[in-house]
Design goal:
The structure holds two protein chains of two kinds. By secondary structure, chain A is mainly α. Chain A has one domain. Chain A contains three helices and one strand; from the N terminus they run H-E-H-H. The radius of gyration of chain A is 14 Å and the shape is elongated. Chain B has a five-stranded antiparallel β-sheet. In chain B, strands 1-2-3 form a three-stranded antiparallel β-sheet. Classes of the chains: A mainly alpha, B alpha+beta. Chains A and B meet through helix 1, strand 1 and helix 2 of A and helix 1, helix 4 and strand 9 of B.
Chain lengths: 63, 152
């Protein structure tokens, strides 16, 4: 990760397992083809991040 | 169902059929004038339901779908889709499963560092990856995603 960061000049952000992203994808997209879908509010988004195990200031939308 | 929802779902159906969701295509799908559909595209972009190419009505993103070829290819049955990022690539089978549609998927991308191929399979709701120790990196904190949604 560090090697990529040095090569790209992009600071390392958040690194996490694919399983967590799969959980988040299911929470985030399961209803995307529903007529009742709407964008998550920040609180709803935070709850989904947390359910997927993604916690901390990186995942806050209100900072 | 309100008009903007019809238009949004037509955009998604168009992507699912591997047809570019131009204003004309969507207007035919919802049986409405192109001017009305173009305005609906603008409203959907304004509410961040879709992202348009600047100054056009070309759909750049209707998450999880990408309107352009990307490094994230997703195969479902005999369909190939382009996703905006690895999150969206996983979002395609997640979305299909949520709608009760066939959702087994093969995702092909590559390591951003060494360019080695990276393959992910979703089978019956279970994710496997090759190599199995692959990790995800998000460079930009969530609060800044919409500062430049193309780079997160």
């Amino acid at each position: 990760m560090q090697r990529w960061s040095e090569k790209s000049g992009i600071p390392v952000g958040e690194v996490f397992p694919l399983d967590a992203l799969w959980r988040l994808a299911q929470l985030w997209f399961h209803d995307r083809l529903s007529p009742t879908w709407r964008r998550s509010t920040p609180d709803e988004a935070h709850a989904k991040f947390e359910q997927a195990g993604l916690v901390g200031s990186f995942w806050r939308l209100d900072v | 169902m309100d008009f903007d929802t019809q238009v949004r779902l037509a955009i998604m159906d168009s992507f699912l059929a591997e047809v570019g969701p131009s204003v004309g295509v969507v207007a035919r799908m919802v049986d409405a004038p192109t001017d009305d559909v173009a305005v609906a595209f603008d409203r959907l972009a304004g509410s961040r339901a879709i992202v348009l190419q600047p100054g056009t009505h070309d759909v750049l993103m209707s998450a999880p779908f990408a309107g352009v070829c990307t490094e994230f290819s997703v195969r479902v049955a005999d369909h190939w889709y382009s996703a905006n990022c690895i999150w969206d690539a996983l979002g395609i089978p997640a979305m299909l499963a949520g709608a009760g549609r066939p959702a087994n998927a093969r995702i092909q991308t590559r390591c951003a560092d060494c360019s080695a191929p990276l393959g992910l399979d979703v089978r019956d709701g279970e994710l496997t990856a090759e190599p199995p120790d692959a990790v995800v990196h998000f460079a930009v904190p969530a609060a800044r995603w919409w500062s430049n949604i193309v780079f997160t």
